Amino acid sequence: MTTTESDKENVFKHIINRAKQYSSSSRVENIKKERREWKEYQEKVRREHQQNPILYYCDKIRGIVPEYEISFKDAKKMKDERIKERDEAAEKLLREEYGMRLPSPDEMPELERRVFNTEVWKHEEYEKRRAEHNAEYDTKHTKPEGMTKKQWQKEKSRKRKLQREEEKEQKLNRDFESHNSPQRMFYKMIDSVDCECEAEKMRVGIFCETCVLISRVRQNMLDLFKDAVEGRSSYI
Is the pLDDT of residue 64 over 50? Predict the structure, then answer.
């Protein structure tokens, strides 16, 4: 290993070790305190589900176990696994971006700050940045052997055109989802219903005509989701 490669590896080790120390010091090491905080969080989620049962029904329909049904031991195991994945993703991201050169002293504070940024640790963020990096690298720097400069320029133009078409298709898909998703369509429909309720009447349980109907829609919706959870629905 050359001196430059050795220095580069030492930089990576320094940054990763700093990140792990930061991560460890920010975790709750007191098991009793950690267990109490988990219990408090479980009660918070339980109250939210009781106040809005649709949250519970959606979790059950999608096969998601509510937090208050997960033991502290299992929750801690999942947390440790996420931290491990985060560490691995961060190291891959650093090596992907700085693997070809040694970071300058001016870059070190920014590099360490990004390591400590939880958003950077996420696999989705890493994969996105890796894909962007690879696409840019392939487009700008890699000319296949045996290809002329003119052919390479034509190929890069084709890749850029393909990328623009993909971005256009992605935008069309997002727009289509935002306008045609049943959930969004339902929200827009409900939001368009005018409300003429008055506070004085509402306090004694009297609502405007449209809101009386909306309350029935709400109850019918809850019943429909409850039937799905309890296996009485023929829709899913």
Answer: yes
223 vs 150 pLDDT, higher one: 223
> Helix-strand-coil percent breakdown of the chain, rounded to 5?
80, 0, 20
Residue 187 within any structural domain of the chain: no
For 234, residues 6+ apart whose C-beta sits below 8 A from its C-beta are none
Contact 90, 115 (CB under 8 A): yes
Q: Decide: helix, strand or coil at residue 29.
A: coil
Counting the structural domains of the chain, the total is 3
Q: In the chain, what's the furthest Cα-to-Cα distance? A: 83
Residue 149 is predicted with a pLDDT of 82
**Amino acid identity, residue 104?**
S
pTM of the model: 0.55
Same domain, 159 and 85: no
Cα 159 to Cα 152: distance, rounded to the nearest angstrom: 10
